Structure formats: C-alpha cells, structure tokens
Amino acid sequence: MTPILAFEAVSFDYPDGTPALERVTFSVERGEHVALLGPTGSGKSTLLQHLNGLLMTDRGVVRIDGENVNQNSVRAVRRKVGLVFQDPNDQLFLPTLLEDVAFGPLNDGKRPAEAEALANRTLQELGLDTAGNRAAHHLSGGERRLAALATVLVSRPQVLALDEPTGDLDARSRMRLVRLLRQRDETLLVATHDLGAAQALCHRGIVLHHGTVVADARLENILADHDLLERSGLAAALDD
What we know:
Elements: E1 5-13, E2 19-28, E3 33-37, H1 44-51, E4 59-64, E5 67-68, H2 74-80, E6 81-84, H3 97-107, H4 112-125, H5 141-153, E7 159-163, H6 171-182, E8 187-192, H7 195-201, E9 204-209, E10 212-218, H8 219-224, H9 226-231, H10 235-239
Parallel strand pairs: 3-8, 3-9, 6-7, 7-8
Antiparallel strand pairs: 1-2, 1-4, 4-5, 9-10
Helix pairs in contact: 3-4, 3-5, 5-6
C-alpha cells in the first residue's frame, strides 16, 4: 500500500544558503501517529511546511498519497494535509471563531450555509460550540489551540501535521488537547520537543538534528537511548 506521506532524500536551504534539511528520508503509513522530535532549530517546522507546499524542496521529493508535492499539485495536496502552525494567531484572523472555521470550506467552494454547518459541527466536536461568536483574542490559550485545530479539521484532511501543539499550555489544557488528539483517526505527524506529549500520542519517533534524521524507531526505544537524547539536544526535555 502506498504510504500516506513520504520524504525521499529531501534537502532544503534557507535563502542565505544555510542548510535546513539534509537528505531527509522517511515514510508514514495511513493512520500512524508519529512524533517528529528535535530541539528548536532542528528543522521540524521547515519539514512540516514541505507537507502542503508552503515550502518546496531544493532537492529530493515529497509525496502525499503517492502524489509529488509541486506547484501543480499543491491545491489538491492541501485538501489532504492539514497543517496547524505553532502560533494559533497565524490561523485565527477573522472577527469571530465561526468565521475562521468556515473560511476553509468557503474557500473550497462550499455554499455559506453548508460552510457554517460544517464549522458549527467541528466546533462542537472540539467542545467549542459556545465560542463561535467570540473573537480569537477573547479565548484562553487552550481554546486558541483547539480553535486553530478546528480550522484544519473542518476540511477533513487525511493527515494532521501539528507544530508544537502543546506549547505554552497549562497542564489542564495540555491534557485536554492530548486526550482529544489520541481519539483522532487521521494520520498524525506531531513536531514537538514535549516528550511527555509525544509519548502520550505516538508509538513511533523520528529525531531530527541540524536538519538530518538521526533516528527513526519505536518511541519507547528512542526515549530509553540517553546517548541519542543527549547528542540530539533532547535530554533537557526529558527532565522537564
């Protein structure tokens, strides 16, 4: 069966020539929950932005459901991959939460009444059904995280790519988000240095260090390898 996503020798350089990704190769099967681990600056966010064509490879190939990600396929790919940014404010920009969540379906050609119905259903799934008429800046940090997730889930993507989803959350909000994500059927690729959240969500881990994959194994084996965690800058996160 074709993997739902695959990176084949993907390299990418920042505009100043600094390497961000170096020959990254891995694949993810449908329904897998995979943690993309690494400290800040390891290349996690850059990798996620290749999944739906926000960034295009300098060398190598990214495939989503067997289709190469390029300028010709990017619109179709974005229907399959929902990317949730590290900062919820990057996805919440309209006067009300309901409008934010309905924006995707409207952009895909849904009629206003259908888009609103889809948005309301998604907000209800995430326990935000009473927040639809509120502005994002009136939501708590945990609610903003869920709201950003709602803007992606409303389009029913096959893959959820989450960039530091538990960042800046208090313990209660973190547990609520992790519990919700554990129930999802979509393929998950979770970029994080929160090893506790990774352990709660994922069975497999891929470790990035300076833009290179240095480990791809069962998460329990990665977390037990203290030399690997030390070399890849994750040992401090294990102590948090």
